[in-house]
Amino acid sequence: MHGLINRAVQSFVCATYGQSCWLRVTEVAELGFVEFEAMLVYDDEMTMRVLDALCADLKRPRAEILEDLGTYLVSHPNMEDLRRLLRFGGVTYVEFLHSLDDLSDRVRLAVSDLCLPALELIELSPTEYQLICHSGLAGYSSVMVGVLRAMADDYGALAMLSHDGKDGEAELISVMLVESAFAEGRHFDLGARKS
Amino acid sequence: MDTCDLAGLLETLCPMFVLVDEDGRITRVGPTLQKLHPDHPMAGKEFLEVFELVRPRAVTSLSALMSLVGTKLHLKLHDTPRTALKGLIVPLPQGKGAVINLSFGISILDAVRDYSLTSSDFSGTDLAIELLYLVEAKSAAMEASRSLNLRLQGAMLAAEEQAFTDILTGLKNRRAMDVFLGHLISGNSPFALMHLDLDFFKSVNDQYGHAAGDFVLQHAARIMVEETRNEDTVARIGGDEFVIIFKALSDEGVLTAIAERLIERLQQPMIFENNTCQISASIGTALSTQFTPPKAAEILNAADLALYEAKRKGRSRHCLYSTLAGLQQGDATSGVSSG
Lengths: 195, 339
What we know:
The structure holds two protein chains of two kinds.
Chain A: H1 3-17, H2 19-28, H3 44-58, H4 62-75, H5 80-87, H6 93-99, H7 103-110, E1 119-125, E2 128-133, H8 140-155, E3 158-167, E4 170-179
Antiparallel strand pairs in A: 1-2, 2-4, 3-4
Helix pairs in contact in A: 1-2, 2-3, 4-8
Chain B: H1 3-13, E1 17-20, E2 26-29, H2 31-34, H3 47-50, E3 51-55, H4 62-66, E4 73-77, E5 84-91, E6 98-103, H5 108-114, H6 128-163, H7 174-186, E7 191-199, H8 201-208, H9 210-226, E8 233-236, E9 241-247, H10 252-266, E10 270-272, E11 275-277, E12 280-287, H11 296-312, E13 317-320, E14 337-338
Parallel strand pairs in B: 12-13
Antiparallel strand pairs in B: 1-2, 1-6, 3-4, 4-5, 5-6, 7-9, 7-12, 8-9, 10-11, 13-14
């Protein structure tokens, strides 16, 4: 599993549950270290051990934790860079939803060895969408539900998200757009730069 | 299609267009381009009054500009921040002027910030947004790589330091000495090399145990560091064997004085857990300048020979390689001084 993914989990756990929780998790998962490097690649199995240890520590189901991880990736100040990259997807939430088809390609453009499963958006009506998460990364659809929910907030849209079962190997997410301009949304300045 | 229809079309297709009439006066500009000149409408001005042609040079009239169909134009805004632009000119039929389409090219990063542009300022086919995305994504990825590199470099330096350090005494080890000697020789820097052997160390070890031995080694190491300069190298190369390298020092009088002081201090009794440990030292010294060309093995061997001579003469002594019999003038005893 790519270090960026492991690092995201680490950053989420530390920011949400504290450093001590992360240290417990790395110990139970028998990592032999406490810091993932963002630009190295680790055995998939390591990530699974970390997630198992985290579920046990928090006594919460994996899907729920992964949804929170998705929300964290967009809404936490630590992750502002990632939020900005996602906002390049479009000016409105609907445009953003359509840009998800290109997400895995966009990711590969930035980090060539980071392969995320393909996403496919089906427009059922202007307010109803279905996102097909293709297989390849266990739990990806849970993370995406969290990401999509937080991005709706970011755009100021009111959307209802839910898991919608499976289609073969692929997992489905349904997106109901209640109001596309529900609230102000967060500011996105195309030319903003880090000081 | 009249120019009005054309302008409507261009506004959607290329929001940074300029329409000029046959006199080179701007009649319409695209909405994004106008944002570069927020306070003054561009329409009505001379094209070459608002934009400066950087390349091709020496074009000062519109008619000359018209002849550049298909050539890539490099322009700049006359006003600050003098944003650079790329352009392409196409004349309109019947000599009714021309369309000039502009884009930012590489200046896009600054332009987006300078003029607070948003994605709606670019046409849907423009790659500007993708370029901005890529710059940010690559910068973030590069930042992550850079921080990894820094940590790896830190770890490497620490590992190197460890590999070159004798853990017990904190002095350099044999490996570090070899590397350092290599550097001095390849850099043609003259130096002196002392080979120092502790006398009676084995009996301290046998009598009072390894802890006492370790204490004595640490104490002896401290003395050697104190009696030498920062730029000198003190290495422990074996159980009770040390090498001291004096950079740019070849005065045998000075070296003899240092050696005598070392022996004198090392002879002072050391107290470990109420036991008095008594050692001494024998030292042999050679100079790199005694060999042409200097070779590490030969210099070490010379210092070793001198050390052997010092031991043979009864220990607690310093011997210069230059005084060994058959080497240079003088006899073997003249350089041996008792400590």
